[in-house]
Amino acid sequence: MTWQRKDLLGLQELTQEEIGFILETANSLKEISLRPIKKVPTLRGKTVALLFFEPSTRTRTSFELAAKRLSSDTINISRDASSLDKGESILDTAKNIEAMKIDIAVVRHSCAGVPQVLARHLKAAVVNAGDGAHEHPTQGLLDLFTIKERKRKISGLKVSIIGDIAHSRVARSNIWGLTKLGARVLLCGPKTLMPPDVEKLPVEVTYDIKKALEDADVLNILRLQLERQKESLFPSIREYRQLFGINHERLRYAKADVLILHPGPVNRGIEISCDVADSQSSLILEQVTNGLAIRMAVLYLLSKEK
Ligand code: CP
Question: In 10 A of CB 228, how many CB atoms?
């Protein structure tokens, strides 16, 4: 297939073929980062703008490195170091950046829908690097890539996503990506941390952690996003850990070869214990490595003339 889309805004709108195509492209680009000279000229002469209006460690660094490994120029705009604090709108900021002839804008914002609005108004390609609790498509793609690399397939796997589903863009991108590729997705967490529209999603739901662990091939463990919770949604961190925290003892209910994923940042000792986060089953750092390949693939595909 050839890539036709101008933007990457979410996995909900992608076809199974498009998702497969990004994963294959990432697979062929991954080895560039293993070379002694980790650079190819593919995006020479292009400019990628990183517009991060919300904090990020992994995604921002990964997109910047991905652009640089493909020889693109990069510019970084953050909320603090931009004229947003002087009252300029995000759209005006983005249009001014575009007037300097950028090719791709990578956008993170705490409000759902900001990358979609910018995509409608900019000629440059727009990549959603996480918008509110809506989607985080490159995280979903890197999770798919990591699972497929280890299990050699996605179809037929049982993937349990555990924790704060309501506030998680990672959960939404995983749900769309996994189900389009044929996995069975089970959500588990406190009732108060399930999204109100959960019955419209192509998933099963349980509030019993043992059911989430039984027969699961993959556990994707989410952080409690306390910064997004406007009210107290569970009695205490201690109770959350007791009911839903994944620790070595609780893993006895899971398959011996279960894979542990976590998008980061990890709150050790809350949603996941240190022994599980650092165990042989944990792919947390492999996810980060694969994220670079996924972001190289996305920048490469979106930079091609349509
Ligand atoms: N997984 C993820 O999006 O991490 P950052 O917030 O550090 O980018």
Answer: 13
- E strand spans, the chain: 47-52, 73-78, 104-109, 125-131, 158-162, 184-188, 204-206, 218-221, 259-261
Ligand 1, pocket residues at CB < 6 Å: 56-59, 130, 136, 139, 263-265
Candidates 53, 54, 57: which one to mutate for ligand 1, based on the most atoms within 8 Å of Cβ?
57
What pLDDT score was predicted for residue 234?
Answer: 75
Instruction: Calculate the dihedral angle through the C-alpha atoms of 187, 192, 196, 200, rounding to the nearest 10 degrees.
Output: 20
Q: Which numbered atom of ligand 1 lies nearest the CA of 129?
A: 3
**Residue environment code for 279-293, b if the CB has 16+ CB neighbours within 10 A, otherwise e:** eebbbbebbbbbbbb
pTM, to two decimals:
0.96
Three-state SS at 156? coil
